[in-house]
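Page header: ASSEMBLY MODEL / two components / 405 residues total.
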Amino acid sequence: MKEVNCIGKRCPQPIIDIAKEVAQLEMGEDIVLLADDPATLPDLRAWARMTGNAVTVESATRFLVTRQNQS
Amino acid sequence: MDQGWADPRKLSQASAKARNLRARALESLAENLGHHPDRLAIVGESALANYFALAGIARGTSTFIHSAIDRKEVFAFASTCKAPVEQPVDRLGHIQFPTPPIDTPETLVALQGANIETGTIQPLEKILTVLTRAKIALDFTSSPTLPLPSRWSTVAYNAHSWQGPEGIGLIAIAQPQLWTNPLPHLGPERVPESFSLPLLLAAAVALEHWIVEEKQEHERIRQLSKLLRQSLSTRIKDCDIAGDPDSSLPHISSISFLYVHGEEILRQLELQGFSVDSGSACSADNLQPSHVLAAMGVLTHGNIRVTLHHGVQEKDLLGLVEAITTAVSTLRLQ
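Prediction written out in full:
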């Protein structure tokens, strides 16, 4: 599965990077985000709510993102 | 001020004048905050008001409960307790209690009147329908004139919240017989009485003025706050506004913009002559995101916190909206 590695990047870069990658995915397709910034989890959840996508937390630094929004 | 320099505890004539001024300041503060002067204690460090309001009634406490959006002073107090309980909040920032909540006479609960970051006002009377036995320490350090609920044990205030000076905190004590000075002490004092008398006088005068202005300005500021929120959500895509505008302090708005650095927005606004605050990690000393925004599920990056002071005009606000719109669109292109 494709990964976006944002380890060491500060907010909001992980969210900017994952949003660009998700825009290239097919509906229902998954991508993994690796990030260790403390703002990643709350911001990823807020981003998913605002954009209509889905996030599953796999560990403190690994997040599964699923494209659910067509726009 | 020129008569309030002496130590009010001494016997000289100057000290008697200082005592008189202190008593009048206390009476004024008590009247405007809705308390009896005998029930007010003053501390010379406003951040300590929260600590004293909790620690002064903590004797015999088995469980300390607080919310995920409390001030850091409350979290610091919780860190000194055995197994403190942190309650989550919903998307609007309202504290969620389990059913039934822990509610015994040995339970101490910290409750905010309103949140300083998002303005969210807690439905205190509703909360107290399920907390009928616990000791209640109210944090009114950002909302001095909210209505007091029907039952409380202590209330913490900060003179800065009514545009008074830094360095004066107040604690209202419902039942002085249940109060214990939490610091080592020899005399009967409830708190260390090492506050500055001139600052206390300034705090009392500031509150008198602030209450008059607040009565005149409250509704106008509420309308400006609505205009700010509506304008930004209409003009800027992907913005996340914290809290419930219908149950918030009208002068505080917390708004986050997706894909933008909060610190960069602050810099751009500063160049345009607007001074706002941010809860984003990139603008915090410890690089941690705002625990309040995170607990509410609000976007923590690209955050700005706008405070509308008395006297702000609609043209100022529209200028701010224009400046924010330009800053966000410019930063998103970079």
